[in-house]
User: Fold these one by one.
Assistant:
Number 1:
Amino acid sequence: MSLETGLNQAWRAIVDDAAIFPPGNAPLHEATAAYGARTAAEGADLVGSFVLKDTDLPLVRGVQMPLSVVVTGGAGQLAGPVELGHRLGLHLAGLEIALRDLDDLAGNARRVVAALSQVEDDLPVFVELPQAPLSSGWLAAADVVAEAELSLKFRTGGLDASAYPSVETLAGWIDASLDRETAFKCTAGLHNAVRHTGEDGFEHHGFLNVLLATRRAFDGAPIEEVVALLDQRSPEALVAAATDQDLAGARRWFTSFGSCSVIEPWDDLRQLGLI
């Protein structure tokens, strides 16, 4: 597969437009207007869904774009946004819900699965597990998600240093997801392609690192290699590695990442010569 063909498919719809979330905090109507006005030259093909909270749905009546809905409450609130979205004529692309019962993650996941039986739609559902190294409880919850054929969501950044998982922790999450043949998406902190120390002083993961690490983990690479790929800071080394990998195939597992910026990942890929 050629670099041009493979990577064009690798990057298509990889960014979920999360402009209204921190640190972007764009006003909702400005963000939806920007989504609709974005041209191919500005990275329109890079973008998949628009991410918003369930409480925002009444404010976007009539918009014509795929919406990923973040459920702000517990499992009992899953059905409401779907019913409302259909009533308003919206295009729902998926649901995202975080597990909050840290003492019983698997039980929390089972409650999510049970609640989905009342949802009259076959939407993709991403279950966010807590930002923690692997534990028996974390893995048990991942088992429940996988058995129900749902997907996982990993938080890879935020507004303070503790929100950024270590490369070892992120490698463990990826490995656990692939071991269960379960797709995942990421959210926060992946504005740039290559791992780096940000102006905020935090250690930011790179989305190119994550995609390459996912590809190699799926191919059976040892965890040490996955960690090294996530920790790689050389753009040249990562681009060279990308030319030899079927990154488009890795999108079956690493489906997308939420970002309040589209222009940053778009500019990075152009500067790296990947698009």
Number 2:
Amino acid sequence: MVNPESNDTNSAERLLQRTGGKLIDVHAHYTPPLTEAERNKMADLFRAGHFTAPPTGPWTADDALTFMDSHGIAVQMLSYPNRLTPDEASRYNDFGATVVRDNPDRFGLLANLPLINPCQAVSEVSRAIDDLGADGFVLVTNYDGAYLGDPRFTDVFAALDDRHATVFLHPVQPPSFGQVSCGRPGPVIEFPMDTARTIVDAVYARVFQKFSNIKFVVSHAGGVLPTLAERVGSTGMLPWVSNTNGVAREDVQAQLSGLFYDTALAASPNSLLPLLEITSADHIVYGSDYPPGVLEVIEKNIDLLSTTAVLQDHELARFSSTATDLFPRLKNRQHS
């Protein structure tokens, strides 16, 4: 292990020494160029979400590459994790595919699926894979209050399962956000909570067992999910808890351990130690949350990973190989 007290290399270099090579960043976001009306709409959404200012400015591929080159990141898997209409999802995915075509060895695309319209989302699965060459997909934790255990999403999961797809799951604001957020933006409290809500809902619906060909990557080390896992497996199995699918404690454990989790803004021991109680180190991948995570916080997270005693060097070295296994099209591009 690298000496945490060593000051002869910066955090990114220390992390690269421990991982044995450059990182694959599964948690990175992009935004296409927006019209003035779209920018105003986005500003309104930020204000409604209790942001006092947008967390980041316009995204460009050049800015992303500069960030990657200075932080030891070989590839970013780009996603736009928000509720989009079918037309919006199509436009965003088309732009993301163009970025990847221009930089095939530096970016991958996680296409947005508009689950607010499940029928259109099924069509977008095929279009994104067959026409755009998408590496995977991004879903958010709820769609106007419908969580991922909702039966209306069954056909979408079936389409993803048929394609052996990898799905990146990112939180958004829950319903009644204004009543539960304590006036703070979603990333402070409610994003980690909503991650747990949707995963637990999907566990009770046996989504991860019914659609076992899908590989799910959960952002931010699962949010508060790891600390709730034991409670769900015990109290959540009592007779007075609704459990129409007969999920048992062992089913809870099996479903949670089979998911993958990223380290975005979650590399401290109080995130990683609970995570390792529900899954193994070979189910962890690197995530930065660039650019909305904000450079100062992202770099602090890199520093935590570079000096962590929770994961050993050989476990950190698995990050990128696990990521390429999750995204075989990326692996093929790198070897072409």
Number 3:
Amino acid sequence: MDGVERERLAAYVRDEDKARFLLGVTITRRVLGVRFSLPPAKVSLDRTCFECGKPHGKVRADGVELSVTHSGELVGVAFSDQPVGLDVEKVDPGMDVDGVARVALSAAEVRELERYDGIAKARAFTTYWTRKEAALKATGEGLRGELRAPLAAGIQVQELEVGADHRAALAVVSAEPPVVRVESATALLS
């Protein structure tokens, strides 16, 4: 890990958050190490925020677009030749879905969400949320972007199957739908 990664790792309070972050860094460095024919420690990553210049922005590497996400038991990394965003979220049955939906979803999405209740409502909200966050990551806006706005033209979003306890979405800035290949990092990490 470089100095920025070590600082970010140290900032996490919970051990499980540290472990997820470390796994995301490891996957990113190993995949890019193979792609660039470099030892993982020699892969140059940049996290500079375009707005303030501090090292908390979306991770970037020369010649490849990427996005890292982690929640619950899952860690994901997306690699593309086009701007990409990946989000995974653990479904939280105790979330105040209606309260969060009012600030995060469009009026039409809030109306659609009213069709659900209980865990189905939490799953539906989390599906909306992962789509939006993946799109905002792909455009580079992150959570500074307008959550309640509909998805912008030119962004392709695809939901990913990750089990009943999580929701995940991948977004690519492209006129064409992405070709998605999902792989386990188990072999890469062994």
Number 4:
Amino acid sequence: MKSVTVQLSDFEYSQLGLSKSTIPFSELIEIIGKKITKQTLEKSVQLANQYGLSKMTMEEIDKEVRTVRNANNNT
């Protein structure tokens, strides 16, 4: 088995919620993936609020999706 050393600042270590200094690489990838997913979701919510999309009803969202799909299918 090979080892890889990754250096993190105390802040980064804390931000990732790490509690031990040695973890499998697959676990590190999973932790980082979850962190990126959470950041992406938070940014999506922020943009939805900024552009008023968060106030759309499910019917309005469905209509927009159908409109885009129909436009893509007709091109």
